[in-house]
Amino acid sequence: MTPSVSAKIDIERFLELAGEYPVVDVRSPSEYRQGHIPGAINIPLFDDREREAVGIKYKNEGRGKAILKGVELTGPSMHLKLSQALNIAGKGKLLVHCWRGGMRSEAMAWLFSLGDIDTEILEGGYKSYRTYILKNLTEKRRMIVLGGMTGSSKTEIIGLLKKENHQAIDLEDLACHRGSAFGSLGQPSQPTSEHFANLLFNEWTKTGTEEPVWVEDESRNIGTVFMPDTFYNNMQEMPVIILLMDIETRIPRLVREYSAFPPELLKGAVMKISRRLGPDKARDAVTAIESGDFASAIRITLAYYDKTYLHSLTRKKSREILYVNTDVDDVDINARKVLEAARKVKWL
Predict the structure, then answer these.
(1) Which domains does the chain have, with CATH numbers?
(2) Exposure string (b/e) for 53-86, b if CB count within 10 Å is 16 or more?
(3) In this predicted structure, what is the pLDDT of residue 2?
(4) CA separation for the pair 346, 331 (Å, rounded)
(5) 176 is catalytic
(6) Which segments in the chain show pLDDT lower than 70?
(7) What is the pLDDT of residue 348?
(8) From 40, 43, 85, 98, the catalytic residue
């Protein structure tokens, strides 16, 4: 059979088809790790070393010599790349992209066609995808921001709302971080800020405009991940519902969550904020952890986090802030309370 010529399609059509067919990212492994279309499978034309060698050849000797170098490096492994493609092309079709939709994706599409795999190439490559998603994330859509001091079970409430078919996005889950000095404990490695935006767009497209989207009140950065600027700025203008829960009600949940971690990790987290706590309080918190008095350690650190959060409320630009008081740490009860408060939001 004569291999077919692959078609190039725009980003909207590409993402539409991605719901049905596998996406193959043919960029190098390091490019893929930096950020990729969620769900895409990496079958690189060049590994990182090979890509560097071809780039040097192109810079020093031109396009023709670079192509020859690329063929020399990849020739022995072409059968492995085609085998991978055949294994994932369940419906006989793959969607392929590189950085700009140029030679790398065209070369791999040609290779896949030798195995009778129908391929379509993303016009403009991953670069066009990034342009598209960042533009979409600037869209001003109705959101409700759920706030509250550390330990108020905001993340659990967001999860419950989502489970009950309210539109909600768990930003901390996407960032693999709980948002404090202790936020990395028990979490996988964080994505890059670039890939976080890709994951956020993936969730954003699952929501509609008919109802507001619930998100948790966050700083611009969640751990090492920074939110896209425009998305974050839009959040700051949205109505905020603050769940107010006293410190003693919050402590038992936090003890359950963090006492299972090795003391050395907990002490390390305390030391990250030791300058802000002050040397005496930091020392007291560490001593409490060493003695197994987790409640006292948490009480010390919460005093700092509560003060910081309350100060941040004074600087909010939100047009509407609603406060909800609760005296119980019950996710179901508190979810009903914030939903009731949400009915009072006055949308413009």
Answers:
(1) 7-134 (3.40.250.10), 141-342 (3.40.50)
(2) bbeebbeeeeeeebeebbeebbeeeeeebbeebe
(3) 44
(4) 25
(5) no
(6) 1-5, 348
(7) 65
(8) 98
